[in-house]
Specification:
alpha+beta, 84 residues, 3 helices, 4-stranded antiparallel β-sheet, globular
């Protein structure tokens, strides 16, 4: 599971689109939704400017996607610290 604490909307959506497997968003009620398949969930992310204070948790189903999301997390965090 990956915890997203910094949210760069454009980079995140780009990473989501190039992911090979499912990208599961873990909701507070214990359920998950697949961001690759759920247009409503993607639309909600598009409306966000920052991640929630506690971040949000993702699971990727294709191990090859982990590297891309880790890179996203490092770059988004670096961008956030420079801008802040």
């Amino acid at each position: 599971m990956l915890r997203i604490e910094y949210f760069d909307k454009e980079r995140f959506m780009r990473q989501l689109s190039v992911s090979h497997g499912s990208v599961l968003l873990h909701l507070d009620n214990g359920k998950t939704c697949d961001l690759k398949q759920d247009a409503t969930a993607r639309s909600m992310l598009q409306m966000m400017d920052t991640a929630p204070k506690k971040g949000f948790d993702l699971t990727v189903t294709d191990p090859a996607d982990v590297t891309g999301f880790l890179r996203y997390m490092l770059e988004a965090g670096r961008t956030e610290r420079v801008a802040g």
